Amino acid sequence: MPMKSMSNREVFASIIGAFFATLCASFFSNSILEADNMPMILASTGASAMLIFGIPHSPVSQPWPLVGGHLISAFIGISAYSLIPNPILASSVAIGVAMLLMHSTGCMHPPGGATVVTAVIGGANVHELGYYFIIIPVFFNAIILLSIAMAVATFREKNPFVID
């Protein structure tokens, strides 16, 4: 099945949306967490932004996969870190379990792979959060991206001032 092409209006709105979404998520995470390891925490957020704004019609770019995929991945990653002392083994097990759960719940979102690995190898800033990592930054970043993506979708469809 070919990927649905985007009009010039959709591409422009998506680029602007991705910029503002990642800016807001980065600002939020930095303000709340004051994390020294910001790029590691936001790697999956950037990957999600590329998907939901770059190919918004894809099944992996829909609201449930975006939010559910990240939440499942964060939970599995934190759990694996807590239960398996070897980070390489913990990351590998976590990837497989997260993939299985995303498939079984219908929320496959590939950037969840970065979330699950970040939960395992993200360092002291992530590990100190424990299961709070699921809420801050993962859940809030997903909601920020989703909110801006929904606004962009409305703009892409209805703004008469953008010419294709």
TrEMBL record:
Keyword DNA-binding part of the UniProt annotation: no
Chain segments annotated as transmembrane: 12-33, 40-58, 64-84, 91-111, 131-155
Keyword Transmembrane helix found: yes
Domain annotation HPP transmembrane region: ranges: 5-157
Keyword terms, alphabetized: Membrane, Transmembrane, Transmembrane helix
Any Pfam family hit: TM_HPP
Stated name of the protein: HPP family protein
Origin species: Shewanella woodyi (strain ATCC 51908 / MS32)
